[in-house]
Design goal:
The chain has 12 helices and 9 strands. With about 240 residues, it is α/β, with parallel strands linked by helices. The chain folds into 2 domains: about 180 residues, 2-enoyl-CoA Hydratase, Chain A, domain 1; about 45 residues. The strands form 2 sheets. Strands 1-2-4-6-9 form a 5-stranded parallel beta sheet. It has a 4-stranded mixed beta sheet with strand order 3-5-7-8. Helix 4 runs parallel beside helix 5.
Length: about 240
């Protein structure tokens, strides 16, 4: 998926949130999809949610309270996707887009990019799941620094605090993202999705042990498990079908 509003630094409009959630639903429903890569067009990944639309929502001009939490629901939906997700950050990231990328399982950035979380500069208290992602993925100290100072950090600092997994030259970004996607897609889909869910739930102290037991039993009896064992014994690459 590519955010494609480069003249506005891929600013996200309310309609974009609907399209994103619809696409996420399609990904979850299609077993042939093994990995989702999220990137942007132009020089920025995204400047975040449109502040004018946010102001209208807070003022009630949109009419429905659901509109005011649409961004949070969209990012939560991305975090909960069945498949592993990669944010290929082609440039700087600001505001809510920082959380959109943080909801992905992997983040690859480019040299020269920056991150800015301007919530306190705008007089905004962030939504609950966004704070949770910042704290659980980056730690309390980094979350406080980014939220409370509202000062930008560069790619090196993003790498140091764990926001980025890798920093590459701009021209190498998609090659590296596609290589990581190929690695993830080559593994057993049922195991990948089960482990992703278990890790995410463990990170916030909400592990569903019954669900984990069910997916472990499903994987143990799957064709993919049998194929993985055969391939290991035969010293070849396995070919998984997601069954």
């Amino acid at each position: 998926m590519r955010l494609n509003r480069p003249r506005e630094h891929n600013r996200l409009e309310p309609i974009d949130l609907t399209v994103l959630r619809e696409t996420f639903a399609q990904v979850d429903a299609d077993p042939s999809v093994r990995v989702l890569v999220l990137t942007g067009a132009g020089k920025s990944f995204s400047s975040g949610f449109h502040l004018g639309a946010l102001a209208d929502g807070l003022a009630g001009k949109g009419g429905e309270s659901e509109d005011r939490d649409a961004f949070e629901r969209t990012v939560d939906r991305l975090e909960g996707l069945r498949v592993p997700t990669i944010a290929a950050l082609n440039g700087s990231v600001c505001g809510g887009a920082t959380d959109l990328a943080l909801a992905c399982d992997f983040r690859i950035g480019v040299e020269g990019m920056r991150l800015l979380m301007p919530a306190t500069r705008l007089g905004i208290v962030y939504y609950a799941s966004g704070i949770r992602r910042y704290v659980t993925r980056l730690g309390v100290a980094a979350a406080k620094k980014l939220f409370l100072t509202a000062q930008p950090i560069d790619a090196g600092e993003m790498l140091r605090i764990g926001y980025l997994d890798e920093v590459v030259a701009s021209e190498d970004l998609m090659t590296r993202a596609e290589a990581l996607a190929a690695t993830l897609a080559a593994n057993a889909p049922l195991a990948v999705s089960g482990l992703k869910r278990g890790i995410n739930e463990n990170a916030v102290g909400m592990l569903d042990r019954d669900a984990l037991s069910a997916v472990r039993a499903q994987c143990a009896g799957s064709e993919d498990h049998a194929e993985g064992v055969r391939a290991w014994a035969e010293k070849r690459a396995p070919v998984f079908g997601g069954r």
